[in-house]
Amino acid sequence: MNYDVIVIGAGSMGMAAGYFLAKSGKKTLLLDSFSPPHDKGSHHGETRIIRYAYGEGEEYVPFVLRAKELWAELEQLSGKQLFMPTGVLNVGVKQSDFIQNTIKSSEKYSLPLEVLNAKEIQKRWQGITLSDDYIGSFEPTSGVLKCEECINAYQELAEQHGATILSNRRVKEINIQNDKVTIKTSNQTFNANSLVISAGAWTKDLLKMLDLDAPLTPVRKTFAWYEANEQMYSQNHFPAFAFETPQGIYYGFPSIDGVGLKLGRHDGGETVHPVMPLFPYGESDDKDLRQFLTQFMPNVEKLKYGKTCMYTLTPDEKFIIDLHPRYTNVAIAAGFSGHGFKFSSAVGQALSNLILTGKNDIDISQFSFRRF
Ligand SMILES: Cc1cc2nc3c(=O)[nH]c(=O)nc-3n(C[C@H](O)[C@H](O)[C@H](O)COP(=O)(O)OP(=O)(O)OC[C@H]3O[C@@H](n4cnc5c(N)ncnc54)[C@H](O)[C@@H]3O)c2cc1C
């Protein structure tokens, strides 16, 4: 079967790319090992934080503002509420690069941001306990994306524009000869003019098939939901948050629709290979999250349940969004290092632009493969 473009991996980035490619009139095929959205990769767990005054560096801001516009467009086209404007509170010591970067981003791009001391934070959100050496930056316009629903929405629209999405088709072989792409699953062969590789934690193995050794490290991550007083921690009273502490970087979500407060740890985690099942959420994972709660949110109650997921890290924790250095008809999106979901609408558009024109309208050179 012949297509204009094949997308390997119909997860966060791939499903969005499939939509933009199909919308532009390309005959598009998306292949996935599972049936997205699913809980085997990096996109499950109901919620993802989206923030614009970017702690990882102001250079991300134009790209995340494009993502914001595209999420609003997706809400309008799908008729679904995908974004919840809870606001996001970042907490750290005053010298923290992350906090200082949020302030610099807000100044440069005129983004609303309130800088608060520990007393002001505790007065506003009684569910938080902080010592005086912490400060916070609160971005009221940011919030939470419903991640699986975003993927479902892109899937529906991609199909409306004629894309074919085949689930439970793991790609086992990629060959490129004279600019023609041949893809094999266990019992089917597909041909195309161009290829997008957006296979999350599995991307390293696929890129090896195209002689590329990508510095990508899949890591096991855990997160959990806790019973919490709704008066204190519901989405009507409490923001999404990220705390930089001496023990680690923790992030979380208010109790949304009564499901409980959700908490995860951003740094650390064991290196894994995604073909092996992840070690399930266990006692030591809970102990780590509980010590954060004891110190900073002591009113949060019992563990409800925990889950595991994967990050795919690059050495500098910046993404890879680029054409293959040798094959100009192959676009790659990988290494989202635990902060990529919020960008996935803009990444999908960028991948489509790379395939259609070889470049993106917003500068993505910081995500080039050649930097390694
Ligand atoms: C616990 C957790 C919390 C996070 N929190 C945030 C947050 O708050 N904000 C934020 O912005 N980001 C967050 N992230 C990061 C974000 O979710 C990821 O960066 C993003 O989901 C990565 O998208 P992806 O498309 O690369 O991978 P995925 O969404 O996992 O998609 C990859 C797809 O490729 C498929 N695939 C793999 N190999 C093959 C193959 N051989 N053949 C066919 N298909 C294949 C997989 O089945 C999968 O569906 C978080 C991540 C985790 C794990």
SSE map:
Elements: E1 2-8, H1 12-23, E2 28-31, E3 47-50, H2 61-78, E4 83-84, E5 88-93, H3 97-109, E6 114-117, H4 118-124, E7 134-139, E8 143-146, H5 147-160, E9 164-166, E10 173-177, E11 180-184, E12 189-197, H6 203-208, E13 217-226, H7 230-233, E14 240-245, E15 248-253, E16 261-265, H8 283-296, E17 303-313, E18 320-323, E19 330-334, H9 344-357
Helix pairs in contact: 1-5, 1-9, 2-5, 2-9
The structure holds flavin-adenine dinucleotide.
The site of flavin-adenine dinucleotide has 37 residues, from helix 1, strand 3, strand 13 and strand 17.
Fold and architecture overview:
This protein has nine helices and 19 strands. The protein is of the alpha+beta class. It has two domains: 2-44 and 148-216 and 316-371, FAD/NAD(P)-binding domain (3-Layer(bba) Sandwich); 88-140 and 217-313, D-Amino Acid Oxidase, subunit A, domain 2 (D-Amino Acid Oxidase, Chain A, domain 2, 2-Layer Sandwich), CATH 3.30.9. Strands 1, 2, 9, 10, 11, 12, 18 and 19 form an eight-stranded mixed sheet that branches. A hairpin with a 7-residue loop joins strand 15 (248-253) and strand 16 (261-265). It is globular. It binds flavin-adenine dinucleotide (FAD). Flavin-adenine dinucleotide binds next to helix 1, strand 3, strand 13 and strand 17.
